[in-house]
Structure formats: C-alpha cells, structure tokens
C-alpha cells in the first residue's frame, strides 16, 4: 500500500488556500478533527451529495428518500446494539497517558514495514480482532515492540472497549435520576430509516424489493480522529437501506456491490484506484460485508460499505418497541420481517476521494520558459464553478458582454466573473479551483460574436459562438 505524504499534505494546504476546507474555529486554534467547508468545498460537497441522491432516488423507481431527525428515542440505540456494542478496542500508554485505537496503532506500525511483513502483521491483527482475543493482541503489540509515538515506550495498559456515541441531556432541566433524559447524537443515519420502515412503505405503497435513502450528519467520539476529513467526529453519511424478501440476500448483495462500484467509476476515478475488501470480521448484524476502497495518498482506505444486515434491525426494533414491523408479500401470501442490504458511503470521504483524484501538479512550460500549475481535474458535473468568464479589458463594452453571458448561464449552473490581472493569471486561479471552462470576451467578440474557450485539462483554446457557450457547458455536465 504505497503512500504519498507529500501529496497528502499538498492537498490539505491547497484546500485551505483555495477555499475548500478550513480547520474549524481556526482563530481559536481549531478543534481537533472538526472541519468547515469553504465556499468551493461546500459547493463540491453539495454536487457530490446531489449526484448520489439523484442516482439513488431519481434513477430508481423503487427507492425513495427521507430526512430523519438527528435526535431519536434512546431505546433506538439499545435495540440497534449501539449502547452495548458500538465500541472500539482501545489501549493507553502508561507513560504518555495517550490513548490509541488498537487497529490504528498496529496499522501505523505496519506502514513502516516492507510489503510482505506488513501484510503478515495486518493479517495477524485481523485474526486477533475476529476472535476478540484482546490479551493475545496486547501480547502481539508488546512482542513487536510497537511503541507510543509520544513517549517512545511499550508500557501499555490492557485493551478495553470504549463506546463512541456522544450523549447529551434532553430538555432544559436535568432529571433527578441521572440518565432519565439522556439522548444520543446519532452515530449513523441507518436507524432513522429502520424506524420509519412502515411509515414509508404504507404511505408510499411500496412493494418489496424497495429502498429508502437518506443523507445526514452523524457523530462519533473518535479517540484518535486523524487523516484530515477521512476520520472526523462530525461527518455526513449517504446511506440506502434496501428491503428484500428473506432468502434473496445473496443475489441483492452481489447486485448492489457491483452497482456501487459502477457509481464510483462514474465519478471519473481510475479503475486501478478502486478495490473491494471483504470484511475479516463481520458486524454482529451482518452475514456478508465488503468495503469499496480508494487509493488515497495515505493508501487504500474504505469509502463505502455494502452490508447484508439480515433482518436484525427490524426484528430488534419490533422486539423493543412491541410494534410489528412486518410486510405482507402478496406474491407468496406471507407476512415476514424483511431482510436488508445496506449501502453506506461517507460524504466527506467521498469529497476527499474526488479531490485526491483531481489534484495534479503539472510542468506546463518549455525549456526556455519553464512553468508549473496546480489543477483540479474535477468532472464538470462535480466542479464547484462550471464556467469562468473574463473580459479581455475593462473597457470598450467587453465587461457588459461578459456579464450578459453570466446572466444567461447562472440560472443553470455556477459561473464566475473576473476582470483583474492578466488572462494567464486568471486561468491559473480557475485551474486551482477546478473550473472546466474559461471564456474570454475580446474585441473579436464585438465583430463576429465569437469568444475564446479555454479547456482546463488540455489547456487548448478554440473560438466558438457566444450563443453556444451555455449549451457546451450543460452538455459537459451530463457526461
């Protein structure tokens, strides 16, 4: 798993410099593992979110979307298993008092090893975790002399589980009996779908198989949140739960596994940058699980999970609520609790993936006149700004023509107007935020109604009619 820390750091710096992603509360020295999306990052994130939403709901006759509340009845999380099982194995260094997630600690050590040794270490770790052998895992850490990054010692506590849910008080006055009004910030969006299963099925007259999609914030109290927006305490998920007849889960699991890989490739990602990774240890609710991983500058990492969740969720909520969550299937004249295939993708990770794929540093000059540029090669449908329009000068009516073109186009897509600096400098700024097309309005425009279009990726320029600009951009957005 090759990594490129220089590229990783360059992307982080670029995101801050060009208005994509900022450290949250930066004027107060920030808040660990919390980030704000700037003007271009917010637009990129919205474009990715909208593209996913359309592909799930608009392009499928049997998938609908909902927007469930972040706060839910606390028994929801007892029924789902999060209160008892939503935890990660943690270990503390006795000298530095620093706490680590065990898998992160071992993965960090493995990254320093040659490929063959690294694979052996990861395989051993996964086997210990699969067996819940925490004593063996601690002995393994000590045997490999995996040290704390702060103290440099191997003086570790025993491994123990740490629950990742944030809790808070519900209501203005704390209850006398502590815990009576305790609620959680949801650690996933899936449960909002499950508790609304019958509401959606009945009001939408949905027939199995059908899906419910949702995009929303989730919160996890990660002890070691790291690697930019890859692992945060507040993040956004795009999930779809697909309800099916029991016994058909293998067929639908295979279907959604391939469908989701096709979607990732439709983002313009190179096929060799994507791979499947089957889970070594299944979650308590699953009978099959696979991740779609992308080759980030920090190596292959999970972006999306596809899980066959059986009937665990609906059965648990049926048990804890005392309400039947069954479906009558007229084709087989039978009531049953549906099985579920889940697709769950992190929106922030997806944006990071798109940024990683798009980011390039290029030598674009000649031997006599060397030059470089940083360009973000976003697919036009995802680019924050689709079209930049430049008047060659600030006089002779050129700004008026440029602004008229902007007015014509901005109802359909985001545009940017700029008249400061040389055309070359303006091109470079648009390259850096990923704008696919730049149009220059010059004196020839007045004569024959044509403009110069400069294409971001090839840097080639061509003359086209002013009246053809809007159609050109919209066609590119459809690809």
Automatic annotation (TrEMBL):
Q: Which reaction(s) does the protein catalyse, per the Swiss-Prot or TrEMBL entry?
A: tRNA(Gly) + glycine + ATP = glycyl-tRNA(Gly) + AMP + diphosphate
Which InterPro entries does this entry report, sorted A to Z? aa-tRNA-synt_IIb, aa-tRNA-synth_II, aa-tRNA-synth_II/BPL/LPL, Anticodon-bd, Anticodon-bd_dom_sf, Gly-tRNA_synthase/POLG2, Gly_tRNA_ligase_bac, GlyRS-like_core
Give the binding site residues for ATP: 220-222, 230-235, 302-303, 346-349
* The EC number(s) this enzyme carries: 6.1.1.14
Compartments it resides in = Cytoplasm
Q: Does the keyword Nucleotide-binding apply?
A: yes
Q: Which UniProt keywords apply?
A: Aminoacyl-tRNA synthetase, ATP-binding, Cytoplasm, Ligase, Nucleotide-binding, Protein biosynthesis
Q: Which Gene3D superfamilies does this one have?
A: 3.30.40.230, Anticodon-binding domain, Bira Bifunctional Protein, Domain 2
| Top-tier EC class | ligase
Pfam family of this protein, just one? Answer: HGTP_anticodon
List positions binding substrate.
101, 188, 235-239, 342-346
Tell me a Gene Ontology molecular-function term this record carries: glycine-tRNA ligase activity
| Source species, domain of life | Bacteria
SUPFAM superfamilies the UniProt entry points to: Class II aaRS ABD-related, Class II aaRS and biotin synthetases
Q: Which segments constitute the Aminoacyl-transfer RNA synthetases class-II family profile domain?
A: 121-370
Q: How does it assemble?
A: Homodimer.
Family statement: Belongs to the class-II aminoacyl-tRNA synthetase family.
Protein task: Catalyzes the attachment of glycine to tRNA(Gly).
Q: What is this protein called?
A: Glycine--tRNA ligase
Q: Which organism is it from?
A: Chitinophaga pollutisoli
